[in-house]
Amino acid sequence: MKQKICDLNSLTELSCKEFTVQSAILEKDAFLVYFKQHYYAYENSCPHTGVNLNWQKEQFFSFDGLFLQCSLHGALFEPDSGVCIRGPCLGDRLKPVNVVNESGILYAPGSNELLEQ
Ligand code: FES
């Protein structure tokens, strides 16, 4: 069954939405952010140790709102590419999640729609 994340028009600059991506055998935490009038979605897993990035619900941005930030060791990621530009996983990137947009409603992908790297 499709899991709705949110209406696209409900997103405002720096919005964050958490959701899960489910397959037959596992469930992955994921999140979506709205940045410079585009949405981006990633698995909620820091490339450094695999922990969730956020320490508070639906808060992923750095204080200045320019980057996504890992709460454990402070790695900074570009919101639009997921690339780490500072921190212990410099040069690694967040795994993108292929959110489905159906008539302005955003849904979590099915298991075959996850982007593999
Ligand atoms: S766990 Fe994310 S920077 Fe170390």
Describe the structure.
The protein has one domain (4-111): 3-layer Sandwich (Rieske Iron-sulfur Protein). The protein is built from no helices and 9 strands. The chain has strands at 4-7, 16-22, 27-35, 38-43, 68-69, 76-77, 84-86, 100-102, 105-107. The strands form 3 sheets. A 3-stranded antiparallel β-sheet has the order 1-9-8, with no helix packed on it. The structure holds FE2/S2 (inorganic) cluster (FES). Residues 46, 48-49, 51, 70, 72-73, 75, 87-89 line the site of FE2/S2 (inorganic) cluster.
Associated small molecules: FE2/S2 (inorganic) cluster
Instruction: Indicate how many domains the architecture comprises.
Output: 1
Distance between the termini: 25 Å
CATH topology: Rieske Iron-sulfur Protein
Mean pLDDT: 93
Give me the CATH architecture, please.
Answer: 3-layer Sandwich
Proportion of beta-strand residues:
25-35%
Radius of gyration: 13 Å
Strand order of the largest sheet: 1-9-8
Low-confidence stretches: none
Overall 3D geometry? globular
Give a quick account of the main beta sheet: strands, pairing sense, barrel closure.
Answer: 3 strands, antiparallel
So how many helices? 0
Order of helices and strands: EEEEEEEEE
Kindly report the oligomeric state of this protein.
single chain
CATH class category label: Mainly Beta
Bin the helical content.
Answer: under 10%
